[in-house]
Amino acid sequence: MDFEEIYQAYFNDVYFYIRSLTSDENIAEEITQETFFKALKSMHQFDGKKDIRAWLFTIAKNTYFTHYKKQQRQINQMEESVLDVQIVEHLMNEEQAFTIHRYLHTMEEPYKEVFSLRTFGELSFEKIGQLFGKSDGWARVTFYRAKKKILVYMEAIRDEGN
Fold first, then answer.
1. φ, ψ for residue 23 (rounded to 5)?
2. Helix 3-21 and helix 25-41: axis angle, to 10°?
């Protein structure tokens, strides 16, 4: 069976399998197309011992999960950007900046130090991780959590004022 025949025979099966994983028709079609593109590129690796439909479903599933993880990273980056803007806005206001500094003195470690090192010391996550004997990922997550704590605190203060 040549690839065109495989495509014709299994396109709908793969598409409906992906549709069972996502409700978005456009994403399902995109992932189905990418699945067949990957299958074409790796056709030489298919030995014919397994069912070709199962092989295509495996490629489709992996392609879907790769797409999903990429989307999650983009959403997380957008959320982080929003938090950064909110923190900067607070720090630009002298009174709010003082409130943040006052809260920082009560904040538990390592959040307090990681936030200070990153925001005021302008250290990279890699350097902060080294200081604590941890990874840059640990420093990034700790900084993110510190920002969230500060924003929750600032929001509570704002709500008290209203």
1. -90, -10
2. 140
* Measured CA distances, 145 to 68, 90, 150 (Å): 23, 17, 9
Grouping H, G, I as helix, E, B as strand and the rest as coil, residue 105 is: helix
Contact indicator for 131, 117 with CB cutoff of 8 Å = yes
Spatial contact of 14 and 63, defined as CB atoms under 8 Å apart: no
CA distance 141 to 5: 48
CB 153, CB 115: distance < 8 Å? no
Confidence (pLDDT) at 119: 82
Element (H, E) at 66: helix 52-92
**In the structure encoding, which two tokens stand for residue 154, read together?**
């600032």
Residue 72: how many CB atoms within 10 A of its CB? 10
**Contact partners, residue 154, CB within 8 Å, separation at least 6:** 90, 96, 99, 100, 103
The pair of structure tokens assigned to 116 is 């200070």
**130-156 residue pLDDT tens:** 999 999 899 989 998 998 898 888 888
Per the document, the length of the chain is 162
